[in-house]
Design a protein that fits this description.
This protein is of the alpha+beta class. It has 16 helices and eleven strands. Helix content is 56%, strand content 15%. The radius of gyration is 36 Å and the shape is elongated.
């Protein structure tokens, strides 16, 4: 719009009684449309900030509603029991009895249970594919002592062979089950030739190769041997032994309460049972963490948007000094000038808030459709989006509006 036309509008709009709401709206609209490209770029920061604000709250609400349904069934049916006897009594020795598996598996609701630990932690065990050699390219391979119940509780998938059962465990046979990662390191690709591995020079027949594990996935990079064999060769664990228990659905909390007493009725305090996390608590924690992280990011976007609005409004004040002086000379008061520029910045913020709210809502619905979820967007969140944009615009326009209100008519008209 030509400067002369803008001055004519200023003469028509300004009266001694000040600017009315309709005048303010007309002037704010004219100021925004005078440079539409700059106004769009100015509102972009608010669009991103409010869009992120709405999308974050909507996505976290949507994800939270799915956590209960998607809560991992394996985690909900897993109990771990740790040996903490050394913390209670330095002379207590090991806490797990020899028949630990049988004691726990007699509890109602237990599917599988077994003790396991990393063997030879005090000295280190060398695993090789030949009696003499560096073995596995010099890369360490953990040797895990595990009872048959511990392997079954891990829900393994076999690539080849089988798991060792109670007989090798009772007779202390030198057999091993290896994970697919360990097999690759050792160069074992098939069991047809009945390969053997050597742990500290002692031969172990490989009876199975694991391709996957639902629990204890780290065993894929380990060599697993019977608990009794490990105790005979390298002694019982000084510390670090654990029991893995797989339970029926809904029985995990009860089993966690009963297992220490079933294992050590004389000293249940020597054992610490860890039940699965509560789904409701987990949902609250996830929601809180997501909200804190992403609301911080949306807050940063809003700050960037506010800075953009403030910068544009301040530039507009400097460019329109003559117009402001003319308004003041015709009777406009300082508060009229302040209201005019606050209206412009507020309009930019509101526009950004409306567009951002729309984009945020579309984002939530789009993600929910892709993930086959039910979208959840609270009405309060949708209502708050434009309000946040308006507030951001008003706060950003405070300083430029104050600067405009301080311009004196005589100084402005001389420029």
């Amino acid at each position: 719009m030509p400067r002369s036309r803008r001055r004519e509008r200023a003469v028509e709009a300004v009266e001694s009684t000040g600017l009315g709401p309709r005048d303010l709206l007309a002037e704010a609209t004219a100021g925004i449309l005078q440079r539409p490209a700059r106004s769009v770029l100015t509102a972009l920061g608010t669009v991103l900030g409010v869009g992120a604000f709405v999308a974050v709250l909507g996505l976290t609400a949507t994800a939270s509603s799915q956590i209960d349904a998607r809560f991992d069934l394996l985690t909900a049916t897993e109990v771990t029991v740790e040996d903490i006897a050394a913390e209670q009594d330095e002379f207590a020795g090991r806490a797990f009895p020899a028949d630990a598996d049988a004691r726990v598996e007699r509890l109602n609701g237990v599917r599988h249970a077994g003790v396991y630990w990393t063997a030879g932690t005090d000295r280190g065990l060398r695993v090789t594919a030949a009696p003499v050699g560096a073995g596995a390219g010099g890369r360490p391979i953990d040797v895990v002592a595990a009872s048959p119940g511990a392997l079954r509780a891990a829900v393994p998938t076999l690539a080849q062979g089988r798991l060792y059962d109670g007989y090798p465990s009772r007779t202390k046979q030198p057999v091993a089950v290896i994970g697919s990662g360990a097999a690759t390191l050792l160069g074992i690709t098939t069991l047809e030739a009945h390969p053997a591995i050597f742990i500290d020079g002692k031969p172990f027949t490989v009876v199975g190769i694991l391709s996957d594990l639902s629990r204890k996935a780290d065993l894929l990079l380990s060599v697993v041997v019977p608990r009794t064999t490990a105790e005979t060769l390298w002694g019982p664990p000084a510390r670090g032994a654990k029991m893995l228990i797989a339970t029926d659905t809904g029985a995990a909390v009860q089993i966690a309460a009963e297992a220490p007493t079933a294992l050590r009725p004389d000293h249940p305090e020597y054992l610490k049972a860890i039940p699965p996390p509560d789904p409701g608590t987990l949902r609250a924690d996830v929601t809180s963490d997501l909200n804190q992280l992403f609301l911080l990011l949306s807050g940063i976007c809003l700050v960037i948007g506010a800075v953009g609005i403030a910068n544009t409004t301040l530039v507009a004040v400097l460019e329109r000094t003559g117009e402001i002086g003319l308004r003041r000379a015709l009777g406009a008061r300082s508060r009229d000038i302040t209201a005019q520029f606050l209206a412009e910045s507020g309009a930019l913020g509101s526009l950004g808030g409306l567009i951002g709210t729309s984009l945020g809502t579309v984002t939530v619905v789009g993600v929910a459709v892709v993930r086959d979820w039910t979208p959840v967007v609270h009405p309060a969140t949708v209502a708050a989006g434009p309000a946040v944009g308006l507030t951001t615009g008003l706060l950003a326009g405070l300083y430029p509006a104050w600067r405009a209100a301080r311009i004196q008519p005589t100084e402005a008209l001389q420029r």
